[in-house]
Amino acid sequence: MRHRKKFNHLGRKSAHRKAMLSNMASSLILHKRITTTVAKAKALRSYVEPLITKSKEDTTHQRRVVFSYLQNKQAVTELFREVSQKIADRPGGYTRILKTGARLGDSAEMCIIELVDYNTTYVSEKAAKPAAKRTRRGGSKAKKAETKTKAPEAEVKVEEPKAENQENQNADNTEEKAE
């Protein structure tokens, strides 16, 4: 019986699986985003997130532990220098899996796995929207009526004539050159 054995072997022997996950983790750290199947992405997420957590503490021991998993000096350096700085305040959930549909050849479910803090489209949307207080109920109807009845304030733009300014500057410049 295989009760409570949830580990996905991905149809590979253990050495092949470890090498594949190591290579995929290195690629994810170096490129910040890779395309793969959903099953491999889920296995990679459970492989790489503890390594990213270890990178928060930059000690020789942690670097050696991470290197034993990745076997790639450039990836370890990138992880401890740049990635750990961006994720310093995040308590977990460093990766995001975005499903992209089926692959044409064998109809395998494909996805993009990426580091969360490096996707600028999601980061800029969160920064642009202020965090609103959420309530369980619909809120006050008076507040909704106020927002609908408020007229937008008209913006007044004052433009100076550009031609006159340029002529004045040109005249000043010619006088300075003549002196």
From TrEMBL:
Entries under PROSITE patterns matching the protein: RIBOSOMAL_L17
- Record SUPFAM superfamilies: Prokaryotic ribosomal protein L17 (SSF64263)
Question: Could you name the Gene Ontology cellular component terms for this entry?
Answer: cytosolic large ribosomal subunit
Q: What is this protein called?
A: Large ribosomal subunit protein bL17
The biological process GO terms on file are: translation
Name the gene behind this protein: rplQ
| Assembly notes | Part of the 50S ribosomal subunit. Contacts protein L32.
The biased composition feature labelled Basic residues covers 131-142
| GO MF annotations in UniProt | structural constituent of ribosome
- Stretches of Basic and acidic residues bias are at 143-165
Could you tell me the keywords of this UniProt record? Ribonucleoprotein, Ribosomal protein
Q: Which organism is it from?
A: Tenuifilum thalassicum
Organism taxonomic ancestry: Bacteria, Pseudomonadati, Bacteroidota, Bacteroidia, Bacteroidales
Does Ribonucleoprotein appear among the keywords? yes
Family membership, please give it. Answer: Belongs to the bacterial ribosomal protein bL17 family.
Region of interest called Disordered, as start-end residue ranges on this chain? 126-179
